[in-house]
Structures are given as C-alpha cells and as structure tokens.
Write a structure and sequence with these properties.
Length: about 80
C-alpha cells in the first residue's frame, strides 16, 4: 500500500503481514531506548513509522502500536521545541 504524505511524497512499505511485527518491535525498542533524540532524528523515525503503517493488512493491535510510536515522536518533538 502506498501512503501519500503532506508534502506529496509517496511511501511504499517493504513489509508484509508476516514480518511487520519484527519491524514494529524494532521501532519500539529503538525509540524507547534512544527516544526521538537518536542519531537519525525525528524526521527519519517518523518516516520509518509511516513506512510500516503503509503495510497492507495491518491488524488493529499493530495499528495501535504504530499510533503509540507516532504519539511518542510527537511528544518528543514538543519537548525539543520547548527546550530551545
């Protein structure tokens, strides 16, 4: 499935229902350990979450996990902006 972002970039997911849990788990581990302040930055991680979200056939629980990750990134962005 393709997802068109606000800036008219299309993201295609390389994941399948069979391997998407591993991708979500990886994102959860990295973002909980490093937060959105990692080496790659928020834009990179937000794009990765959106890429996984574009996977066809996601289950409700998987979508909920991805929504939590996006919320985590949004909250970290607010903290970063406030700290400046």
């Amino acid at each position: 499935m393709n997802t068109t972002l606000d800036w008219h970039v299309t993201i295609t997911s390389p994941y399948t229902p069979g391997n998407v849990d591993a991708a979500i788990g990886h994102l959860e581990r990295v973002l909980s350990a490093e937060g959105a302040n990692s080496l790659f930055g928020q834009t990179y991680w937000r794009t990765r979450v959106q890429q996984v979200s574009a996977t066809r056939g996601l289950q409700r629980g998987q979508r909920a996990r991805l929504e939590r990750l996006m919320k985590l990134l949004s909250e970290a962005g607010c903290v970063q902006a406030f700290a400046r």
